[in-house]
Amino acid sequence: MSEKHPLKIYGKPKLESSSLVVGWGEDAGRLGTKVIDYLNKRLGGKEFGEIEPADFFPLGGVSVEDDVAQFPESKFYWCPEKKLAVFKSNRPASEWHKFLNLVLDVAEHYCHAKELYTIGGMVSVAAHTSPRELLAVANSPEMREILIQYDLARGFDYETPPGQRPTLNSFLLWVARRRNIAAASLWVPIPFYLVAAEDPRAWRKTVEFLDRRFVLGIDFRDIDEDVSRQDEKIAGLRSRSSEVDSYIQKLESNLGLTEEENEKLVKEVEAFLRRRD
Amino acid sequence: MRHVEKRGAMGIRLGKKPEVENPVLIAGWPGIGNIGIIAVDTLRGMMRAEEFGEIEPWDFFYPKKVLIRNGELMDLGFPTSKFYFKRTEGKDLIFFIGEEQPAQAGRAYAEGKKAYQMANLVLDVALEFGCRRVYTSGAAVAPIHHTLIPKVWAVPNNESLVDEVRRYENTILMSDIEGRGGQGNITGLNGLLLGVAKRRGMEAICVMGEIPIYLQGLPLAYPKASKSVLEVLITALGIRIEMEGIDELVQSSESEIERLYEMFPSEIKEQLDKLKYVTYAKPTEPAPITEEDKRRILEDIDKFFRKEPKED
Known about the structure:
The structure holds 2 protein chains of 2 kinds. Chain A has 8 helices and 11 strands. By secondary structure, chain A is an alpha/beta fold. In chain B, 33% of the residues lie in helices and 23% in strands. Chain B has a 10-stranded mixed beta sheet, with helices on both faces. In chain B, strands 5-6 form a two-stranded antiparallel ribbon. The A-B interface holds A 58, 93-98, 136-141, 143-144, 147, 152-160, 165-167, 170-171, 173-175, 177, 185 and B 58-59, 62-73, 75-76, 104-106, 114.
């Protein structure tokens, strides 16, 4: 039996000098998938291809999230009115280099992309009411020059600490650099108690940059409504639980919490936000 | 590195071609207690073997380190898989040291296609330089006490090697272990390389140092067993090295293990202390504890640590 090529392309995007935006599932604050879903919804994204999961995911069964069985997906979309394509995927569990090269094959040969951006959330100890920051890492001096125009990628040094591993976004940037594809990873710090929930402020911060960079003409009213809705929910929890309120107040005053307080806050907020309205 | 050679889609980089005659390959990857890798790497270091090549990592491994400077990704570091050589008056040696096994996310041991590809690449290089004999090394989880000198379990890939292995000191075959009937398995690349070597017509022997059953799940190296492995390897290879380096490692690990052991609950320690007298290898010598005692000790230990004995 001949091995099937894992890349399936079933539409021909009309894209020249475009950019590809990549978002992963299992991201802090669901940032990656939320931003990709939002761009697809606002810009009428059309699916044009996918990467078959068999080579990259264990497929020993299915995971269940929020009562529903999940299956790994790795799909490409393009936005007809804009020079933009997006890729939304679960994180592969093996053959990472091969997988990332397939993403770049599509960027290069089907999207004719000149730039690639990845989206990622990182854990922060700030309160949810504090403004979100956008951080960026470039994979080339030229890409860094572009980011500097947006006041990003300045003076940021980092080395993986012992016992930790680089992110998949760093891996993708490195593979892109070896293929001379300009790429940048965008990072938004997410309050630690929203990491497993959602963080609409972080979506907004990311979409704001993409809107400026690609002149997308986004109307932010709907995201702002999401931000207000979540603020109201957490305010409701604060008024019910003086303990939660005191923890968040401490964070708002730039004070740290004990490990026990951290855990309690995460548990309370997650349980409260998970409740169905 | 002087040139890059490609084998299929995977690459081997060879810096210079070592002038070696009928070399023996000694390969090691990390495993339980890092017993094999410590033995092989100690030997490599003591022999001052020279690096001459590596297997390109990116098709096998997830990166281990990123370096970002002033907002720009400068480099990504991967686990290394390197070749070294040493000419000696006796046998010439090629070493292969894999910093990690090419395992799937969340697993410690390589298996399936990736493991098979890695094993073949290692043997491609060995065969290119005329190698016909391979040694790998790992751990054998055994019902022993940490104050005892670990034995070495040896598994050859060919019946014709059994007599040779029997002559190694402090070494036992699977058939010497009570109740095993010569059966067992060796997990990961330290084992798989034996099979792939057999398939490619090469002689191979895996030498595994014993680690006490109660230490196998702890994130501790067990250099005491590496020393036993090293002693077998140097005898088999007919070479001499000073053991001081590994003796220091053994001493410091012994103190750490003793400190941990003191923290075990007294009833568990009481059971574990009986392992000082367990004889599980044939031929049995008169033992100060009964078969019933032995069965109960192993059951209790198993309950406490909830792990099955295994080799890697």
